[in-house]
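Researcher: Please generate the 3D structure of the following complex. Treat every line as part of one assembly.
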Amino acid sequence: MELSGAEIIAQFLDDEGVEYLFGYPGGAVLHIYDALLQADKVKHILVRHEQAATHAADGYARSTGRTGVALVTSGPGMTNAVTGIATAYLDSIPLVVITGQVPTGVIGSDAFQEVDSVGISRPCVKHNFLVNDVKDLAETLKKAFYVASTGRPGPVVVDIPKDVTDPNIKIPYSHMPSIEMRSYNPVTKGHPFQIKKALELMLQAKKPVFYTGGGVVLSNASASLCSLVRQLGFPITSTLMGLGAYPSSDEQFLGMLGMHGTYEANMAMHDTDVLIAVGARFDDRVTGHLEKFCPDAKIIHIDIDPSSISKTVKVDIPIVGDVDDVLTTMLEMLKDDSKETSLKVEKSSCDQEIKDWWKQIKVWRKKNCLRYNKKTKTIKPQYVIEKLHEVTKGDAYVTSDVGQHQMFAAQYYGFDEPRRWINSGGLGTMGFGLPAAMGVQLAHLDKPVACVTGEGSIQMNIQELATCMQYQLPIKIINLNNRYLGMVRQWQEFFYEGRYAMSYMDSIPDFVKLAESYGHVGMKIDKTSDVEDALKEAFAMKDKLVFIDFITNREENVYPMIAAGKGQHEMQLAPDSELV
Amino acid sequence: MRHIISILMENESGALSRVAGLFSARAYNIESLTVAPTEDPSLSRMTLVTSGSEEIIEQITKQLNKLVDVVKLNDLNVSGVKHIEREMMLIKVKAPVSARDEIMRLSDIFRGNIIDVTDDAYTVELTGTSDKLNAFIASFDCDSILETVRSGVMGIARGSSSLHL
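Model: Done. Output below.
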C-alpha cells in the first residue's frame, strides 16, 4: 500500500484500533485532517480549545485503560495542549499527542505558528519525537504508542512537520504488529526474593497498613489487591489517585489518607509498624512533614518505576515491578507450601496483635471525622456529593476539577470500582473536569457521567459545553457554587488571618442561562430540600447535558486537614460548633 | 561525593538536551559533561561529572536510566569499580622572551605539549586528571593566562569490564 504521510497517520490510527481522536485543526495539520476524512474507524471529536483535546483524551484513557490520542496544530495549538500533557504526565496517563509543525525547511526561522514543540514539552512528557522524514513516520508512531502505554505510562508527543504529511509524496506502508527498542525495556516482573522478604515482614506485622495509589488502577490490579488485603485481614487506605481500586464500602477500607484524609487513615499511617505501599509515590500531600511520616514503620514499596523508590522516603524492602504481577505472585506464595517458596513465618503468628490493631482503629473511627451538619438550610457541598452517590447508586463515573469540590467528591462519593474517579491529582489542573468528562462519556456512552466542579474551575474550560452539544454528551455538571475560590479562601482563612485576596468570585455568569444558550438544560438549586429531587430529575434526562448550579454554603471548609509542616497525626478536625 | 557517570545513548538529535534538561529540572549539579559518537555511529557516549549525597546520586542514575534514549549507564564511583579519568586542556599563556624557558620547563614537568607558538603567546596542550590541570593553571599568574579550554572529564573502567551493548 502506497500512502502519503497524512494518509499513514489516518491509516495507522485505524490499524492501532484508536476509537477517538480529540483535536482541533490548523495550518500545519491540514493535510492530516484531509486524510482523516477517509479514515474508517477512528472518530474525530472537535473540541473548542486544544487544552480540552488533551484532557478529553486523558479522561478517555483513565476510564478505559487504553491510550488516549489528541491531534493539535503547531504553535499555539501545541502550547495550549501543554497543560493537558503535563496533567497526564503527573498522573502517569498513557497519551499520544500528535502536534503539527512548520515544514522541515523553515524550522528554526521563527516561521508563522512555529514553536519548539519538542523543547517545550520535553520536561512534561515520558518521551517525544520529531519526525524529519516520512519514511520514519509509521515506526515513530508505533514507538509512541508503545512507550506511552507500557512501563510507567505517560504522555508522548509526536511532532510532525507539514512537509512530512505532503499528500504528493507516497511511500509503502504496512502496519507493524509490535516494536522493540533497545533503549527501552521496562521491568514488569518483581524479584521473587524481594517479594518473599516482603511477605515475611507482612506476616510478622502487628500494626500493618496497606497504602495504595494510582499505580494499582494503572496496572489493573484491583482484583489481586482485594484478594490479598482480604486474605491478610489488614486495614487499607488509598491516595486520591487510587480511590476505587479497593471498594470504599468495605469494612477494611479506612478512607483516603493525606492532607484531607480521614482521621483513622492518617492515625493508622502514623502508628503502623509495617507500611505496604503499593503503586503510590509518597507525594507531599500524602506524607505531610517528612520527618514525622510513619515514624515506627518498616516500609515495603511496590512500584514499576525504580526512580519512585526511596525518592523522598527511604524504603526498607523495594520491589520494582508491575503491581498486578507482584500482588499475584504474593497470592501464589501464600498459597504455595512447596519447599523452595515456603515462607519462614507462621501465617497466623500475629492474629492477636492484628485484632488489637483493629480495636484501636475502631476507636479512631468513632471520631466520625467526615460528619457534618446536614440540617442547614443552605446547601452543604458534602450533602450534594452524598446524594449524588445515592441517586447514581454509586455507579457513575465522576470527574472533578480542582479545589474543595474535588476533596468533597473524593471523601463523600465512596468509589467501589477502579477507573470511576477521574481527577487531576498530581498537577491539580483547574479546567480538567468537563473535557475529561467528555472523554469518559464517549468511552462509556450508556453510563452516567458526573462532572463535579465549582464556579471557578468550570469557567476555565466552559467553552466545551459546545463540544458536548455537538456530540450529544449527556454529562451531568454538578457545580458547587460558593462564590469563592473555596480552597484558596480556606487557606487564607487558616493561614492569612482571613484576608481574602482575589479568592472572591465576582461577576459570576447565570449558569442556567449559559447552559441554555448552548442548548443544554440548566437548573439552579439553593435549598437543601431540593437537592435530591434535582439530581433525580437531571439523571432521568438520559440524553441531555444538565448543568446543576448548586448554591452552597459560602465558607464551608474541607476537614480533616493536615496543615503544611504538620505530621499525619496532627490533623485539624471540624470544630464541634459546626457539627450540631 | 563526586561521581563520574558514563552513559550510552541513542545518537539522536535532542538526546543531549534531555540529559541537560533533567539536571536543571531536578536541580542536580553538573560539574562537567562531554559527549561524542562512539565506534558505533548510532550510539553516543556521554561522561557526566556530578556530586551529591548517596541518595541524590541514586536518584540521578535512576532518572537517567528512565530517559527513553538512554541505552545503558555506569557509575564509575561505586565500590568494586576502579576507573581511570582524564581531562584535556588547551591553555594559552603570554610568552614574553623572559618567560619562555619557564613555560617550556613547566610544560615538560606536566608532560604537556606546546602546540602553538607566536611572538607573544604559547598554547600548551595538557592531559591528565582534573587536579593535575588545576595544578598547572595554578603555576601561572592569573595575568599571564590568556585563555583556557577544558574538555571536561572522560572516564573508563579499569580491566576488561566495559560499557557496551
